[in-house]
Amino acid sequence: MSVLKYAPEALKNLFRAPVTTSYPAKPFEYKERTRGRIDISIDDCIGCGLCTRACPSSALSVDKNAGTWTINRFDCIACGYCVEKCPKKCLTMEQNYQEPGGEKQSVTYQKSPEVMAEEARKREEAAAKAAAAKAAMEAKKAAEAAAAGGEEK
Amino acid sequence: MGKRSIIPYGPQHPVLPEPIHIDLVIEDERIIEAIPSVGFIHRGLESLVDKRDFNQLVYVVERTCGICSFQHGMGYCEAVESVFGVEIPDRAKFLRTIWSEMSRIHSHLLWLGLLADGFGYENLFYQCWRIRERVLDLIELTTGGRVIFSVNKIGGVLKDIPEDQLRHILSELDAIEADLNVIKKTFIEDYTVQSRLRGIGILTREQAHDLGCAGPVARASGIKADMRKRGYDAYPHLDFEPIVSNAGDSYARCYCRLMEVFQSIDLIRQAIGKIPGESDLSVAIKGNPDGEAFFRCEQPRGEAVYYVKGSGKTFLDRFRVRTPTFANLPGLCEMLAGAELSDVGLLVITIDPCISCTER
Ligand code: SF4
Ligand code: SF4
Question: What is the ipTM of this complex?
Answer without folding.
Answer: 0.75
